[in-house]
Design goal:
By secondary structure, this protein is of the alpha+beta class. The protein contains three helices and two strands. It has helices spanning 4-7, 30-39, 44-51, and strands spanning 8-17, 20-27. The longest helix has 10 residues, at 30-39. The protein is globular, with a radius of gyration of 12 Å.
Length: 68
């Protein structure tokens, strides 16, 4: 299993307000982006579990044009 740090070109987080966090994961090429996206491993349920929040509070937005 690959680690995100080994396959993502960029993986960063930043505060988006007092109760919000933005996480950007950008991939170098279309093939890697497609494989990760189709795997479903990055999903609201994962981030909800990692940050101990309700999945309904996770907004997950893949952005194909940026491979993010």
């Amino acid at each position: 299993m690959a680690l995100i740090r080994d396959i993502a070109r960029v993986c960063k987080s930043k505060n988006a307000g007092p109760f919000e966090l933005t996480i950007d994961v950008v991939f170098e090429d279309d093939e890697t982006f497609r494989r990760v996206k189709e795997s479903g491993v990055l999903c609201p349920a994962l981030f909800a579990r990692l940050y101990n929040v309700n999945p309904d509070h996770v907004l997950f937005t893949p952005y194909d044009a940026a491979r993010a």
